[in-house]
Amino acid sequence: MSELLARAASGDRESAPVGYARVLGEGVDTSHGPILYLDDITVSFDGFRALNKLTLTIDVGELRCIIGPNGAGKTTMMDVITGKTRPDSGTAFFGQTIDLTRLSEPEIATAGIGRKFQKPTVFEPLSVFENLELAMKTDKRARHSLRAKLNSEARDRIAEMLARINLFDSAARLAGELSHGQKQWLEIGMLLMQEPQLLLLDEPVAGMTDHETAKTAELFVSLAGSHSLVVVEHDMDFVERLGGKVTVLHEGSVLAEGPLAEVQQDERVIEVYLGR
Amino acid sequence: MNAANPAVHPPSAAQLPVPGHGPLGPRGMAAVLVALFVLVVLVPVLNLAVPADSALHLSASTVALAGKIMCYMMVALAMNLIWGYTGILSLGHGLFFALGGYAMGMYLMRSIGREGVYQSDLPDFMVFLDWKELPWYWSFTEHFWYAALLAVLVPGVLALVFGFFAFRSRIKGVYFSIITQALTLAAMLLFFRNETGFGGNNGFTDFKRILGFSITAPETRATLFAISGAVLIAMLLFVRWLTGSKFGRILTAIRDAEPRVMFCGYQPLYYKLTVWTISAVMCGIAGALYVPQVGIINPGEMSPANSIEIAVWVALGGRATLLGPLFGAGIVNGAKSWFTQAFPDMWLFFLGALFIVATLWLPNGVVGLWQQLRSKWQANKEDAA
């Protein structure tokens, strides 16, 4: 598995410029700036401000970690980006042209944003293979699904993904029978089958063994460059392994931003995060 | 990814499973179809060709009962599509069934002609109300094809419109169930009114003929039975195809993790709306076949209790299994016809007990129980070997 991952990693690194060009070729226009642009976003629930004038940009190919204490607004931010929650005010753009505050969840997913939930969410009564089949990028209208047949190319792609997420031998098992860590991997695999340009990952290594966590970090690092990733995580070792820029959220807005080591030295961060 | 590394076992798509069906394979399915086909042929033959004094003779009432149960089985298949596979519990499916029945009933009323009690061109209940001409919505109902069309279109269009607003507003779970229950109750109250023009609480009855054939003739009854059987088999094959398709897997996915389905890029609204409308149309067809065999349709068919009973059939038989609904509808209605004759007062207690048993001990219905027993038996056999 590790060889496979390493192979995937090196392959993707080499093809990073190609991946960049592919991003340009598809729906998202990132020719003049970031892939994700949140400006002045405010969301209130019954008077509680979950997000408070949040401003955040993610660059093309970036791997960004978001940390922050409970209730800092991390999940609400993902809800806004994926269309689940509409902001009270502010703008959210995917690339230059796609206004996320106007699209429905499926439209945003089709535009190229994939999301992994905090609790691993896979289709438990379906097999691992079928989970990947449903996630695969294709025409997702009801009319098309009635007649959809898998061609050999699609089966090859599923096979590749199964190997990549180390579930090839479990292809026929029901997703509900997998371990917690395997479900996390399956969900990541489903996300990748959608071929998104931007991946939002909410606590992707929760419940994984140290070994699985290390492999996940390797995978994410390999994806950066050809994809943009936003990872919400509490596990600081994992955040350190990813090595990207870190954003600290607190009470719905950005408290600090920078490399992990720098952020960890920040007095305000130490105060809110460690409760000192 | 790069070309396969020989050190790692090369992923070959050929080793992978084919997505599709659950436990019931092609052989099991063929056996079921043969059994149903034999039943559909055998019952009319035993009724028509075997002399009445023979022990093998089936009475006309038995044929009618069997035909009626087959119509209920169609409704159970329809309910299973929307509840079992998609996880949307409708407590108003009796409405679609009744609407299909009323559409066919209108044609049957018109074909009575002047043989009614009042010897008028109008149905008796309209003469009784002192109406001079047919209301506009009775136009063309003298044609069988038009009534058949109505039996499909009325439930279908109602389901489409109702479903669109309900699913677009993301009404789910118990709220959806309650609204469907209210819908069928409202329709029942409407149909109870004489002014609505559907015979009030008496509904339609005293049918004389269908397509020129006497409706009480044994040959007509046997034909209706055989048609119902053929339609039931067709619906069973259709449900198998639908649930085995990618569309069917998305329905199951919607049932268990709708947010994930949306974030995969699917719009659940259209999937739900499609299966909901298909389900309603299946009920309408069942109702249209039911009425000529039973000889009566009245607003009682729209009562909420009837719709709840449909859910009991599916729960008892086994949700999200292909054959469960057939067993459920067969067991409950078979028991009902026996109980209501043998112990008329006890029937509702028995039905309640059946539902409690199904809920407590048969989470996957009788089909689930059978699967459990079979896997246990196989495990024992392997232990012994």
Automatic annotation (TrEMBL), chain A:
Residues 36-276 form the ABC transporter domain. PROSITE patterns: ABC_TRANSPORTER_2 (PS50893). InterPro entries: ABC_AA/LPS_Transport, ABC_transporter-like_ATP-bd, ABC_transptr_urea_ATP-bd_UrtD, BCA_ABC_TP_C, P-loop_NTPase. GO terms for molecular function: ATP binding; ATP hydrolysis activity. One of its GO terms (cellular component) is plasma membrane. It comes from Chitinimonas taiwanensis DSM 18899. This is Urea transport system ATP-binding protein. Keywords: ATP-binding, Nucleotide-binding, Transport. Signal peptide: none annotated.
TrEMBL record, chain B:
InterPro entries: ABC_transp_permease, ABC_transptr_urea_perm_UrtC, LivM-like. One of its GO terms (molecular function) is branched-chain amino acid transmembrane transporter activity. Signal peptide: none annotated. It is found in: Cell membrane. Its main location: membrane. It comes from the Bacteria. Pfam families: BPD_transp_2 (PF02653). It is a multi-pass membrane protein. The chain crosses the membrane at residues 30-50, 82-104, 144-167, 174-192, 222-242, 269-290, 310-335, 347-370. One of its GO terms (cellular component) is plasma membrane. Keywords: Cell membrane, Membrane, Transmembrane, Transmembrane helix. CDD domains: TM_PBP1_LivM_like (cd06581). This is Amino acid/amide ABC transporter membrane protein 2, HAAT family (TC 3.A.1.4.-). It comes from Chitinimonas taiwanensis DSM 18899.
